Amino acid sequence: MSQIDAEKIEGSEEPSQKLVDVSEAIRYRKRAQLAEQKKTILEQELAERKAEVERLNQNLSQMTMERQLIDGLVSAGVRDLDAAVIIGRTKLENDKETTAADIVEQLRKEKGYLFNDAAAAVASPKTSGVKDKLSGTRGTLERAAKKAANSGSRADLQEYLRARRNFV
Q1: Taken in order 156, 157, 161, 164, is the CA torsion positive or negative?
Q2: 78-124: per-residue pLDDT in tens?
Q3: Buried b / exposed e along 26-43 (16+ C-beta atoms within 10 A)
Q4: What predicted TM-score, i.e. pTM, was given to this entire model?
Q5: Across the strands, what pairs with 115?
Q6: Within 10 A of 140 (CB to CB), how many other CB atoms are there?
Q7: What are phi and psi of 16, to 5 degrees?
Q8: Measured between alpha carbons, how far is residue 145 from residues 25, 53, 133, 158 in Å?
Q9: Domain residues of the chain, as ranges?
Q10: How far apart (Å, rounded) are the C-alpha atoms in residues 18 and 162?
């Protein structure tokens, strides 16, 4: 083996063992540690978010069932809505398979005193609204304003202002 071949062999070993400065190695190590810390923090946040989503989904399903129960009780003509909802909610919690309609029927059979005698509650008739006392005067005021605007007369303007002072 010649001296040139020996240099080639030695030269080929150096690139494969590529040495890195100590400061760069420390910097890389710090970056890796920060990345690992960030990863664990993000994993914890993800787990918290998933737990929160699960909790909110459970709350939503409970509210939906309670709303269906309230709607069913109202349409069945319940007298004491609060008591019926409390009883119905406990029955729903005890038996997850039943629906709100089943609970309403069960309450109607077991606790008939919670419901009105009529099959369905009848909505109260509409009442007549209160009439505005100034509704007749507004027409007079509007007519005077239009007359003053169209004619441009100072007398019409004065008449409009006098009417406005009296009604407003």
Answers
A1: positive
A2: 988 999 999 999 998 888 888 888 999 999 999 888 888 754 445 55
A3: eeeeeeeeeeeeeeeeee
A4: 0.48
A5: 78
A6: 13
A7: -75, -25
A8: 88, 62, 20, 10
A9: 22-114, 135-167
A10: 101
